[in-house]
Amino acid sequence: MGDLPSPSTGLYNGVPHPALKSMKRTIRKNREFIGWGSASLIEFLISIGKDPSQACSLFDLNSIISEYITRNNLIDREKKKRVACDERLFSVLGKKVVNRTKIRDLLEPHLLASQDSSSEDELSDNSEESEGASNSRKRKRSRGLDKTNGTMGIKVAPRSCFASVVTQNIKLVYLKRSLVQKLSEDLDTFDDKVVGSFVRVKSDPNDYLQKNSHQLLQVTGIQKDSEAGDSCTGIILQLSNMSDGVQIRMLSDDDFTEEECEDLRQRVKDGQMKRLTTLYVEGKARVLHQDITCHWIERELALLQNLIDRASEKGWQREYPS
């Protein structure tokens, strides 16, 4: 492996690296950060030819690491989810062997924004209680987005900027049953795409407090039965606010209603679900955008073809009534 930049000097192959020498250095929780990321993460990105001057989201980093693992054949041949870290990857993840599903959790502490999220979250817990306080915080956040990190002009959105629980935002990370079934055909990317998204399931009939027939829930985990022949039936989704998992066939294939989104917003406000940050929603939406768009186009084309067939059939009947 080639020479890496030194965290204390910013040298790369003995020469000050331009992406390092002008980036602000900070210390958080006994970890040194260069600009938006930790020193070890920035060094890793430079060593594989990535430009660290542009801040990466957690999902972008996860994709970069996954690509690096595949390119360097670090996946265990017997256990596909196990990764044997080489020297470069070990410098970031801190483990010789890791599970692919845990990589995102190991990468989160390397983002500077994640270090300040806990204290900022506490200050913003009651943001929806007062309209005046909410507007004041929004103005502060908008000013914070304009601040640059270091002298290179890297804009980093604070991790504690919460995303509004509204229909437009939830649609970006909402998966219908048919789309989840299609995603299950590729188990290597299934976890990264589905975990953290929202699905629609039937409400418990014994829950007299639930006014809607269905409710929106977030996928928190996935269990797979290796003995099951069909990949769909062998997958159990763990959902928020539900003790038992559900199979993919139990998901709804329709759009959710505004009332169901309002119910989700109330559960988040009551603390029954973790609040979504704009950083998380943007990253998740970027991962799912192509799949959701292609799935919508396919369904619209099928509906259009059905309408054409029906119109043609009615036309034939009028032309030849006998």
UniProtKB/TrEMBL annotation:
Compositionally biased region (Acidic residues): 118-131
> Can you say what this protein is called?
Plus3 domain-containing protein
What organism is recorded for this protein? Papaver atlanticum
A GO MF term:
DNA binding
UniProt xrefs under Pfam families: NERD_plant (PF25980), Plus-3 (PF03126), SWIB (PF02201)
Annotated stretches, region: Disordered: 114-151
Q: Which InterPro entries match?
A: At5g08430-like, NERD_dom, Plus-3_dom, Plus3-like_sf, SWIB_MDM2_dom_sf, SWIB_MDM2_domain
Recorded hits in SMART domains, A to Z, give:
Plus3
Transmembrane stretches, start-end: none
Per the record, the domain of life is Eukaryota
Please list the residue ranges annotated as the Plus3 domain. Answer: 164-293
Extract the coiled-coil ranges from the record: none
DM2 domain mapped to chain residues = 30-113
